[in-house]
Amino acid sequence: MTTAPSRNGPRRRWPSPRTTAWGFLAPVVVYLVAFYLYPLLRNLDLSLRDYTVRSFVRDDAAFVGLDNYARVVTSAAFAPALWNTLVFTALSLVFQYGIGLALAVFFHQHFRLSVSLRALFLVPWLLPLIVSASTWSWMLNSESGVVNSVLTAFGADPVNWLTSPRYSLLAVLVANVWIGIPFNLVLLYSGLRNIPPQLHEAAALDGAGGWQRFWRITMPLLRPVSAITLLLGLVYTLKVFDIIWIMTQGGPGNSSTTLATWSYELGFGSLLPRFGPAAAVGNLLIIIALFFGVIHILVQRRQEAA
Amino acid sequence: MTGARRVLTATVLVLGLGAACAGPGGDGGGGERDYRFWDPYTQFGDDSEWAALVTDCGRRAGVSLHRSGYDGSDLTTRAILAAQQGNPPDVLVLDNPVVTTLAEGELLLPVEELPVDLGDFEENLLEAGELDGTRYGVPIGANTLALYYNADVLADAGVDPAAIHDWADLDAALAEISAHGYRGITFAAIGNEEGIYQFLPWFWGAGADLEELDSPAAVAALRLWKGWLDAGHAPNSVINNNQTTSWQEFETGTYGFALNGTWQLANARASGIDYGIIPIPSRDGGPAPGAAGGEMVTVPVQEDPRRYQRSRAVVECLVSDDNLLTTDTVLSYVAPVEEVAARQRAEEPELAPWINAVREARGRTANDLGTRYPVISENLWTAVQNALSGAETPADALAFAQEAVTGDFGR
Fold first, then answer.
1. pTM as predicted
2. Which of A2, A13, B217, B249 is the most buried (most CB within 10 A)?
3. Share of chain B above pLDDT 90, in %
4. Chain A residues inside the 8 Å CB shell of B84
């Protein structure tokens, strides 16, 4: 760093480039350690101890190894929560991506008012989650919800969207898809704009139809954007908590409980906090998200190598 | 030598950041005369009568009392975390079923070590704060549930509320109300402590015991609720209703009855509904014992025991007769002391049925259920939710709940 000639030779030079480099790195390292590494390790530690209110306060909880994990996995609530998480995540991704892509393609062909219309589609993204979730729960209310009013107006039977174990997961799923569409729309739309129009022109000259151009040109060239959209969507959807908690609290019973709401419920949902099992469930979620993240990186590397 | 300066700046920044991170709950200890006071009354701002009372009690005790209100379960979590950081508030007002849980965690000072004289307080209200024969909380006010009725709806359906003494009478009344195009009753069966608070009068009113969730009496109570839903006497929305949304349903004026508490009295007057109140009937007749609701004043354990003396003065001030009357009027609660309740009855005759109901009420964590109560309660509300939503029959749901209570952490 220092360019001025030093009288005492290079050995006395302080700070050395190395020290300076660490100096610049330090803020990031401190930030990462304080806000990422420490909470992660603390959560791991929580999940390996048997916490009661007393031992939490005194910080002398017994180390129990993987006991909390065993208790969580063998609990009767685990299988339904895992299944609900998988169904909720998979269907959310499919519909958010499908509808988002359809809208992106639609808006890609410029027409009058397309910009303002596209802006309107972003509204769900701009609303605070508590607002959208409360609105959905009012609309789906068994007694006074607008959805059931419409159903009855058309002669159908009202549905207990939020209070029937058959429909509660569907209800939160619909709300989550609605909230997720703008995110997919924005990313995929910008992906579409990066595809050179000449390719489409050339294909059209060669006689490729609309569908052919979509499947042979748009989709393959959109693949990197699609992959990152789906991965981000996955990580986000796995941990969706607010919508479900506000709409159904994971109920009735545990029919709309996912791993994320279950973790919260164990930790903060009853009068007696159970931090150990709650942390264990949270860590399982992190592992699932990591698993898919690693798959994404591996696939991406292979694509880049190819 | 700009390089060195940059390093210096960076180092200072890092140190600053480190220092900022190091002080958990920064507002810590404070001065010797700075006392912290936490309560669950988020509805009262700094300009409320309650806040003024708290400040005044602080002044009399010779401290400046800093009050913070936190939402119910958030308050519990905060209290536990604060204790873990060695930074608990000096005075903590807690929902009564939480007191034994925190006492079990050795977070609270026994009342006799303060000491505050509990002689005048009603026994059934004190027992919620009792663990292994030691008391940890001073009741500040009590409430419980009763049935509000809409007099116009009942008159239209030809139902006489005064003639309802047992479940059969109530069932018949609900059927009559439904037959006249109204809804019979609304209540709150949400899957949390609020739902259990609403269920317990029926559960205890059938003669069931929290130690035995799958008893025939317990099944009968759950069948009663389920029957109302199946017959359309109660709306399906009760499964997600909390006590506020349930009250809003009653305020539409299309419901015969609403299960709710003293704290809705002001809303009832404002609603313009011609309302009345009857006690909750038990299965075989007579008023059912409800769950004692309401808060307790507690003093968390401090590192410096010298602080207790002034905390004690604050507590004594809050629960002195005159202040109790103010507090319980503000909160729309029934006073936990006979003499003060008598003054309430004289000043506001409308409170009479509530005062009677509170006297019958039971502590949820009584009989040394202590920290087992949260587990029992959670499994019970899961059973209620599963039965009402039709996922399981009442008998199966309760059998599963009992199994889960005796087993691990439930569900």
1. 0.82
2. B249
3. 57
4. 56-57, 59
